[in-house]
Design goal:
Number of helices: 12
CATH superfamily: L-arginine/glycine Amidinotransferase, Chain A
CATH architecture: 5-stranded Propeller
Strand content: 15-25%
Number of domains: 1
Helix content: 25-40%
CATH topology: L-arginine/glycine Amidinotransferase, Chain A
Mean pLDDT: 89
Distance between the termini: 54 Å
Largest sheet: 5 strands, mixed
Length: 431
């Protein structure tokens, strides 16, 4: 009997097209969005067992239908701002299109057999290579097969930010810290190497060396020359240094700023405690970025005389470091406002994890009310996603004011990842 078919994402706001050629360009965190990779949660989320949810890095069980509705609403925001078809690319569609090539399917199967030895998956390699495109596509997400074997689903794929990091015109493929996310690395690698739309960027794909851990949620592009990388629960020091080495060698980056974070789930990535809302403005979790927090910032620069080495300097704090490197003052807006308990509560529900669709146009979870109040104090008009979409239903969006958009709903936030976590921009404009 065939396993259930993975829920199709065709109803999502935008779908990718196999004949399109994609380019990479992310000069900063807040340049106007032009193209972004997402994954609307599907059947793989429905397959998370309560007893083993923590093994799959999920704190709770999501109601997938409501989660999809909330995710679709977020994607519609991106469609509205981008203003043209093809701006929102679904990972599910891209993988299906890549699987049209036999070499892509064989690569995926061989990599899966390499990492899944504990389940003896390699014993089924021949049968896996004989699966249809759609059967293998289903297996990639759900772990279900019309064979006498089943492996866990990949519910964390909705957090596409962790798959990779686009810095200027290059993309670094992540090397996940946990076995639960290893298949995600294979999925994004298959897409980047075998989807025809990415054929022109093959020489711009950067890979991490064996033995390091590195996830995209720890990378923030302040400017084409300045990149922040978190040393976190998910990204090791060797991962930071390997990424810095590759960025110095292959991109316009001249400064890598490592931010040392507490090694705990609530601050698993840098973007869980720090995100840009504008070129000179950030939303931060105050306890980690006060004057008392000194010595947790290290500034790396390339060594002109030794290509594989670079200098490092311990800095006083992140704010003064950014002001020095970017050449202008920075404003830090407190997640949760001024109240310490509110800061802790709202950071727990991704209050600091805003996604900038354009300079000073950001989206975050509605439930973090104190954070939105702090945004209002800094000149933002706060609106719901629904009202934003209704207002711009008949006219193109032109950013004319500071906007903080509240993404309604409570289901996605239970997955412990905010709007930035659920987005992987591959192209932004230079403006």
């Amino acid at each position: 009997m065939n396993a259930p078919v993975l829920e199709d994402t065709a109803e999502s706001p935008s779908t990718s097209r196999a004949e399109t050629s994609y380019t990479l360009n992310v000069p900063s965190e807040t340049a106007p969005l032009q193209q972004v990779l997402v994954h609307t949660p599907g059947r793989e989320v429905d397959l998370v067992p309560p007893d083993s949810r923590l093994d799959l890095l999920f704190d709770d069980i999501l109601y997938v239908e409501h989660a999809r509705e909330e995710h679709d609403r977020m994607c519609k925001l991106f469609d509205t701002l981008i203003g043209e078809p093809g701006g929102v690319l679904q990972i599910s569609d891209l993988l299906r299109q890549a699987f049209a090539r036999e070499e892509a399917r064989y690569y995926f199967v061989e990599e899966m057999c390499r990492i899944a030895k504990i389940t003896n998956l390699q014993a089924f390699e021949k049968e896996l290579k004989q699966l249809t495109d759609e059967e293998l596509h289903q297996f990639a997400f759900t772990g279900e097969l019309p064979l006498a074997i089943r492996i866990p689903p990949v519910p964390n794929l909705m957090f596409t930010r962790d798959l990779a990091a686009v810095v200027t015109d290059h993309i670094i493929i992540s090397h996940p810290a946990t076995a639960a996310r290893a298949r995600e690395n294979i999925i994004i690698s298959t897409i980047l190497h075998y989807h025809p739309g990415f054929a022109s960027v093959q020489d711009r794909i950067l890979k991490m060396p064996p033995g390091v851990t590195f996830e995209g949620g720890d990378v923030l592009v302040a400017s084409p020359e300045v990149v922040l990388i978190g040393h976190s629960e998910r990204t090791s020091v060797t991962g930071v240094m390997a990424a810095a080495s590759k960025l110095f060698a292959d991109t316009s980056v001249e400064h890598v700023v490592m931010v040392d974070l507490p090694k705990r789930r609530s601050s698993m990535h840098l973007d869980t405690v720090f995100t840009f809302s504008g070129p000179d403005e950030c939303v931060v979790f105050p306890p980690l970025f006060t004057e008392d927090q000194t010595g947790n910032v290290v500034h790396f620069t390339p060594d002109a005389n030794a290509p594989n080495r670079f200098g490092c300097e311990v800095r006083v704090d992140l704010k003064s470091t950014l002001e020095d490197l970017l050449g202008h003052e920075m404003t830090f807006i407190p997640c949760g406002g001024r109240n310490t308990l509110s800061q802790e509560r709202e950071q727990w529900t991704d209050g600091a994890n805003f996604f900038a669709m354009a300079p000073y146009v950001v989206v975050g979870y509605e439930r973090n009310s104190r954070t939105f109040e702090a945004m209002m104090e800094h000149g933002y008009r706060v609106v719901t996603a629904g009202s934003f979409l209704s207002y711009y239903a008949e006219s193109p969006f032109e950013p004319e004011e500071r906007l903080a958009i509240k993404l309604e709903g409570t289901e996605l936030s239970r997955g412990r990842g905010g709007p930035r976590c659920m987005t992987l921009p591959i192209r932004r404009s230079q403006a």
